[in-house]
Amino acid sequence: MILLDTVVVSELRKTRPNAGVVDYLKQQAARAVFISALTIGEIESGIERQRSKNAQFAVELEQWLAVMEMEFADAILPVTPAIARVWGRLCVQTGNKGIDNLIAATALCHNLTVVTRNLKHFEPTGVRVLDPFSAV
């Protein structure tokens, strides 16, 4: 089972997404693919940054995010107290308090592999990682 990092979810929105990502995800059973609620927050942050630069693009992103939330409705993992505790330990171990550590903590608590392009962000946490971008 896998947890998609934000960079992978965002890749799926592109007109021509990376072939390695598309091929990898086609091989996964839908019930084995999850995202973190934090991914929704990261995407929302990107939408807000776009709002003053390109309002139409921000609207398009909002619509895409709404569809994505519906598609992943039963596969969006919240941050629980157990995840928060693991994150706290990871913060000390890695010296990083960022969202990637929260995503790693989510994967560790649910025994998931993080699917990402940003291996270096996750490797210090000890979570299993996979880069589908390099599979082309």
UniProtKB/TrEMBL annotation:
Its EC number is 3.1.-.-. Residues 2-119 form the PIN domain. It holds the Pfam family PIN. Keywords: Hydrolase, Magnesium, Metal-binding, Nuclease, Plasmid, Toxin, Toxin-antitoxin system. Its cofactor is Mg(2+). Mg(2+) binds at D5, D100. Signal peptide: none annotated. One of its GO terms (molecular function) is magnesium ion binding. It comes from the Bacteria. Toxic component of a toxin-antitoxin (TA) system. An RNase. Belongs to the PINc/VapC protein family. This is Ribonuclease VapC. It comes from Polaromonas hydrogenivorans.
